[in-house]
């Protein structure tokens, strides 16, 4: 979810309207002054002075409004510039620099307030992702807690964004090994999700997986099987996320076993190593490498490192463009993953656009009646349905 201007009350529109109104008021005021001066000569020169002062005061106030709009626009430009630089630094592996730039953007956005306040949540999520990538889990929890408090204050306890930040806190706690605290957080969030959201909503599925992974005794249980069945219904039987969920229910490799018992850090390390091995053995433009990219992206998403997860999915989609016989199944999986990340960030509009592209790809590759196409259609319809 990019930091961008809102269309409804953009600074450019405010500036144009402010200038137009100021000019109109000044012109009307001058006309009124001269009319009064011509028609009511007996009132004396002081009446003209008062009227001129009123007109000048109104014009000055409008000038201040225009100046404020310009300053706000410059502030938004600064926030966007710093945000992009933070993402670029994270992409290049300069996590310390990225964290500093995210902090700077958050401070600047908080000072702006107003419409710019909506950017703070996006920036906090980006900073949390960088802290997770750094392994600075204590600070990552603090960032998610700040985002959670902000969402509760602005949207309430039962808002989807509040549930998302609660899952973010739980994911980092679980990565830290604080199973009990993470489990309590996941259980509370799952109860709220089941009451407020669709059973197939990403936050509901995340909370369900979290409860399964944070059991006091690390083991595979019935909740893992429930999650696998839910993934099959949501994403389709052959979707990579579904296959990973099935592997968690019956672990057949070390990464899936780690993921199943809540060792998110271990799952991340093993998935990253599996990707590196695939690149070394098969090169980048190979279906096995792309599959490993999607697997790693899914682990990153579960760990709530959304910035890194988005980059992995994007890279997988790009590499699929080099594979013959497109749209490739892994490309559709990557598109689905990008949409999931967008939903977790609260970007419903762009998520719907991505899911529509996935549905088009499924129609092209599988036809109308295939289970994968049916799952893609349900996902899009669920998102577009009125809440």
Task: Give your account of this protein's structure.
Keywords: Membrane, Transmembrane, Transmembrane helix. This is Tetratricopeptide repeat protein. This protein has 387 residues and is mainly α. Among the domains are: 141-217; 242-382, Serine Threonine Protein Phosphatase 5, Tetratricopeptide repeat (Alpha Horseshoe). It has helices spanning 11-39, 45-91, 95-112, 118-134, 137-155, 160-176, 179-196, 202-213, 222-235, 240-249, 254-260, 264-282, 287-302, 306-320, 329-344, 348-366, 371-384.
Features:
disordered N terminus; transmembrane; NLR-like; mainly alpha; Serine Threonine Protein Phosphatase 5, Tetratricopeptide repeat; 387 residues; 17 helices; TPR-like_helical_dom_sf
Give a count of the beta strands, DSSP E runs of length 2 or more: 0
* Average residue-wise pLDDT: 81
Order of helices and strands: HHHHHHHHHHHHHHHHH
CATH architecture of the domain at 242-382: Alpha Horseshoe
- CATH topology of the domain at 242-382: the name is Serine Threonine Protein Phosphatase 5, Tetratricopeptide repeat
Radius of gyration using CA atoms only: 27 Å
Q: Can you tell me the CATH class of the domain at 242-382? A: Mainly Alpha
């Amino acid at each position: 979810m990019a930091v961008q201007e809102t269309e409804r009350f953009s600074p450019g529109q405010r500036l144009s309207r402010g200038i137009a109104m100021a000019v109109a008021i000044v012109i009307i005021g001058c006309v009124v002054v001269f009319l009064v001066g011509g028609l009511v000569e007996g009132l004396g020169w002081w009446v003209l002075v008062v009227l001129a002062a009123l007109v000048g005061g109104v014009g000055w106030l409008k000038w201040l409004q225009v100046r404020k709009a310009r300053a706000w626009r410059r502030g938004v430009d600064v926030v966007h510039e710093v945000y992009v630089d933070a993402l670029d630094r994270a992409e290049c592996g300069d996590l310390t620099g990225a964290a500093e730039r995210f902090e700077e953007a958050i401070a600047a956005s908080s000072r702006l307030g107003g419409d710019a306040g909506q950017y703070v949540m996006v920036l906090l999520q980006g900073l949390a992702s960088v802290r997770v990538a750094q392994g600075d889990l204590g600070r990552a929890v603090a960032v998610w807690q700040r985002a959670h408090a902000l969402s509760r204050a602005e949207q309430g306890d039962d808002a989807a964004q509040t549930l998302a930040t609660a899952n973010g806190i739980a994911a980092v706690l679980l990565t830290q090994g604080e199973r009990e605290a993470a489990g309590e957080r996941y259980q509370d969030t799952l109860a709220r999700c089941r009451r407020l959201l669709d059973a197939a909503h990403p936050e509901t599925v995340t909370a369900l997986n979290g409860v399964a992974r944070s059991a006091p005794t690390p083991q595979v249980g019935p909740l893992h099987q429930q999650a696998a069945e839910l993934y099959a219904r949501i994403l389709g039987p052959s979707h990579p996320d579904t296959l990973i969920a099935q592997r968690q229910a019956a672990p057949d490799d070390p990464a899936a076993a780690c993921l199943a018992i809540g060792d998110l850090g271990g799952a991340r390390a093993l998935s990253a190593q599996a990707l590196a091995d695939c690149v070394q053995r098969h090169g980048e433009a190979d279906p096995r490498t792309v599959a490993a990219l999607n697997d790693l992206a899914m682990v990153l998403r579960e760990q709530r490192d959304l910035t890194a997860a988005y980059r992995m999915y994007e890279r997988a989609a790009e590499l699929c463009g080099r594979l013959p016989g497109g749209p490739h199944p892994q490309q559709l999986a990557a598109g689905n993953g990008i949409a999931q990340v967008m939903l977790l960030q609260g970007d419903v509009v762009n998520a719907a656009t991505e899911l529509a592209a996935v549905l088009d790809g499924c129609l092209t590759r599988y036809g109308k009646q295939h289970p994968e196409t049916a799952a893609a259609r349900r996902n899009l319809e669920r998102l577009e349905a009125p809440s």
